[in-house]
Amino acid sequence: MKIAARHSSLITRHSPSGYREAAEVARYLRARWRAQPRVAIVLGTGLQDVVHGLEEMQTIAYKSIPHFPRPSGEGHRGVLHLGQWRGAPVAFLAGRAHLYEGYTPAEVVLPVRALALAGVRVFVMTCAAGGIAPRATPGSFMLFSDHLNFQGASPLTGPHDARWGNRFVDMTVTYDGALRALAGRAARALHIPCFEGVYASLPGPSFETPAEIRSLRRLGADAVGMSTVPEVLAVRQRGARVLAIATITNRAAGLSRTSLRHEEVTEVGQRASPDLSRWLEAILPGLARE
Ligand code: HPA
Predict the structure, then answer these.
(1) Whose C-alpha lies nearest to ligand 1, atom 9?
(2) Does any domain span residue 6?
(3) pTM score over 0.90
(4) Which atom belonging to ligand 1 lies closest to the Cα atom of 252?
(5) CA-to-CA distance for 107 and 109, rounded, in angstroms?
(6) What is the CATH number of the domain that holds 220?
(7) Ligand 1 atom 2 nearest Cα
(8) 130 CB within 6 A, ligand 1
(9) 114, 19 contact by CB (below 8 A)
(10) Is the bond into 111 cis (omega within 30 degrees of 0)?
(11) 89 is in which domain, residue-wise?
């Protein structure tokens, strides 16, 4: 009951397109940060430990930022880190809200929309995912080449506000080729196991059935998860560039002998964090120059 009350109050406070709230957050952040980040990194489940070695770090809890959603999931901290990483100003969103928590698509994307309005031009989305393609084994990473949105929801639905961008957003090239090439080269140099593939986003929060996974495979999915696509849609509408990386934390349902547990997702994500961290650190100067 308490949760329902919190969500309904959030929803009624939002303007129809969410623009007013995002603009207010953008002003709030700009007044606080010491340098303008051009790159923001969204950290997914179990990947919160990626943040270390940030210089001049400022940490702001989501709960003290107006309109920010509060991630309820274990493995999501709910803090914004700002600092310099290898000489480039960067923002880390440590924790994201999901549709399955009861947030609306507009609430889920408010943090990335606010950062885009505040001047971030390149977004790196990270998430945990179940591996469907044979090479998508736990501990490997997938660079999104494309996605299948099976969430049945989009943050672009609703009254159109042209301040966000086009009503009908072109999705022909969603995941920037140059950023992907940069990340792929760095992974090879660092011997980080990585491949390119298609991410299928489902609403969750139940894991998929083996029949769903077999169907997704036939439809061209290489990995499956419950996040990322709403944020990607929102920032693409703004014209920002996107690199998305999934940490494969498990074989998807029916593809291994074990059953799926959320604890396994966070544990494997945490174990893969050092690789993700040195990988992001290596590409950040290049991303900041883009
Ligand atoms: N399915 C959906 N989401 C996930 C999975 C999965 O197998 N693993 C990590 N996130």
Answers:
(1) 129
(2) no
(3) yes
(4) 7
(5) 5
(6) 3.40.50.1580
(7) 225
(8) yes
(9) no
(10) no
(11) 19-289
Question: 251: which DSSP letter?
Answer: E
**pLDDT, position 46:** 67
**Number of domain units in the chain:** 1
Residue 2 lies in a domain: no
DSSP state of 91: E
Pocket test for ligand 1, best of 100, 213, 260, 268 (most atoms within 8 A of CB): 260
Which residues on neighbouring strands pair with residue 124, listed in sequence order? 41, 243
Task: Tell whether 11 is covered by a domain.
Answer: no
pLDDT of residue 44: 85
35 Cα to the center of ligand 1, angstroms: 36
Nearest residue (by CA) to ligand 1, atom 6, is 130
Examine residue 1 and state whether it is found in any structural domain, yes or no: no
Whether 122 contacts 39, CB under 8 Å:
yes
Q: Does the Cβ of 230 fall within 6 Å of ligand 1?
A: no
DSSP structure class, residue 149: E
Residue with tokens 């430990």: 49
pLDDT for 242 equals 98
Give the pair of three-digit tokens for residue 214. 């077999």
- Counting as low any pLDDT under 70, the low residues of the chain are 1-13, 46, 48, 73-76
Cβ-based burial of 215 (10 A; exposed 0-12, middle 13-18, buried ≥19) = middle
Q: Give pLDDT, residue 76.
A: 60
